[in-house]
Amino acid sequence: MVEWFWRRRPRIPAPRLRSKEDAPPPARVDLHEFTPEPPEFFARAAYVELVLFERLARAGTSTPTTAIRSALARAADAPLSRHRAFVTEIERMGADPGEAMDRRRAAVDRFQRLTVGADWLEDTATAHFAGGFLDDLFRSLATGLPVELQARTREILARRSEDGVCAVLLREAMERDERLQSRLALWGRRILGDAMLVARDALELGEDRSGAEQRIEPAFSELIADHTRRMDALGLSA
Amino acid sequence: MVEWFWRRRPRIPAPRLRSKEDAPPPARVDLHEFTPEPPEFFARAAYVELVLFERLARAGTSTPTTAIRSALARAADAPLSRHRAFVTEIERMGADPGEAMDRRRAAVDRFQRLTVGADWLEDTATAHFAGGFLDDLFRSLATGLPVELQARTREILARRSEDGVCAVLLREAMERDERLQSRLALWGRRILGDAMLVARDALELGEDRSGAEQRIEPAFSELIADHTRRMDALGLSA
Lengths: 238, 238
Known about the structure:
Number of strands of chain A: 0
Oligomer: homodimer
Largest sheet of chain A: none
Number of domains of chain A: 1
Shape of chain A: globular
CATH superfamily of chain A: Ferritin, core subunit, four-helix bundle
Largest interface: A-B, 31 and 31 residues
CATH architecture of chain A: Up-down Bundle
Helix content of chain A: over 70%
Structural class of chain A: mainly alpha
Order of helices and strands of chain A: HHHHHHHHHHH
Strand content of chain A: under 5%
CATH class of chain A: Mainly Alpha
């Protein structure tokens, strides 16, 4: 995390020797001005989590061992729990979750269709990398929600317990078969493009689209850098 | 439940006018003498729950509406939670859950292969009917576990929150399309046969197989009657 931070902002004086208490967290560019209305925000987030759940559940059905199959099923509990929590938020607003999700699901459906993995490894990588990217996006967008919803949303999005499991499973698979590394690196890069289309579609860009495009650029650069960091952590150069 | 009880044991004097407090629960024939060793019992139960989870997760991906898709995903949380709990029991015994499940999974794999539904309705019916039947079996077999494991096992098996969701979804679908009733009745009858093969395979019959066959007969009759009751509750005559 710290290393990546240096690479991206080499000109900022490095607080290298500061203790953890002194160092403020790196200021992130948030996307609050592009946050859709709360029901739409939660509907999109709920639908993305549903798709991530389905992806991990599907990954589990074509694994080489029952141990991996069980681990992926249990990992699928995390996006399912986030889905359930976002559905509850939609219901709290008096909206119908099914209808709310249906209204703007085209971009996510396209993502789902275009990123069907060749095997459990690609599906697991999708859940880990694209899921991490999109949850980061929703975390950034959540800053534009009414204050009382921000904390609950952050708390829901913090439940990414699948990341640890996915990372271990992918790392172990690459240790068993070194050729996997280049395939998964390529896959990770590819799904970033697909996930970015979902991300852009989730923003409320308003009328001044070209102005908006310029202003979302720094935030997207940060999201991409976080993706690169996740890839690096698995030895996958993006 | 009470009605079914009369049908099966017409000669027992009927405690019809007793209050609920006075009436003892109907004595059930349990299967304690056929219970396998605890690690094997939990491995089988864990694997069945994993398969039920996968079935509901799969059902969710081919539904007509996002609302049903979301409901099925959330229903899949129940077998997943039971799977997780049984895996924890296997780990507590110092055994490897993956290996333990692998050792005796053939009958369940066969069930999984033979009962792939034509649509989400058949998969949902499988999770509800076959899942209910097999969890009843494990509840009956649990009486043969060491005492300290019985309560935990009963508590795990009591978490069948998917039943309510499945029943509502199936009932609503049949209200929308009356022709479904005969198809689902047929399906429910068929998967009972497949589930019974899984059930028999889960028993430790010992050397005197023909004696054992005779002694399991009454317990299986009760399990089948419970299945019939579940079918009846949805207007599906078995």
